[in-house]
């Protein structure tokens, strides 16, 4: 990556996104753009930025931008703002995501599916559409489009996911498909490494609510290891920093570097 790498991460005000933003902002070569859907809900991020800025003596280096998943006009406005300020994006990370609890297909409503498809599927699609021109302006040999997906959207792993999570899983499976198409359409042609990521089980608000919805106490014994958002961000950063188009483009990679089946 070049001396000045511009990285944009969505869903940056809490959970895994917040920890990713902090990690990248701690490294001098990165300019970090934090995509949040409601800037008034980014207090923790702003405080961290202010504090880090004081400690470095150079001021906060995180730029907040409003990005609502699936809103094409809003995403284009955000891209225009970033173009004015930085002229390019090197790494675009669609991390924002939502879940809706444990609902069997038989009782799931259209709204359950539609809401999650808008955030988890259209969110990354629209983000790519709005920022494609800025990724093309990157002078980095490897440009990256990363999507925080989930093993719940891995059709080939459903034997390991015996939970009623179809609206969430379907929305992530759909975005996985789109990632494969984007890798075909923009991997070799534009040098963009398109990669889906499985962060593992993480005790964010979303992860915590997931255990509650399944009738388990998130603070009690759980059937699998659960990472903190900070641990997860560290693992994911380790994975994505070494990503290349040839080696990883069009793949679904887990926090522990294993390849997840589609
Ligand atoms: N936690 C896990 O165990 C786990 C496992 C597999 C995959 N994931 C995936 O990891 C990603 C990050 O989730 P997390 O665990 O860090 O959850 P989280 O702490 O609940 O954070 C979710 C983030 O997504 C944002 N978001 C939700 N809906 C949005 C929308 N319509 N437009 C824009 N932003 C929106 C939230 O913003 P607001 O604060 O404004 O709501 C928040 O910043 C998600 O894609 C999730 O599906 C998580």
From TrEMBL:
One Pfam family from the record: adh_short
Gene Ontology MF term list: oxidoreductase activity
Keywords from the named record: NADP, Oxidoreductase
What the entry lists under Gene3D superfamilies is as follows: NAD(P)-binding Rossmann-like Domain
Which domain of life does the UniProt lineage start with? Eukaryota
Species name: Filobasidium floriforme
Name listed for the protein in its UniProt record: NAD(P)-binding protein
Which family does the record claim for this protein? Belongs to the short-chain dehydrogenases/reductases (SDR) family.
| Keyword Plastid carried by entry | no
Q: Does the record bear NADP in its keywords?
A: yes
Please list the coiled coil stretches. none
**Segments traversing the membrane:** none
An annotated GO cellular component: cytoplasm
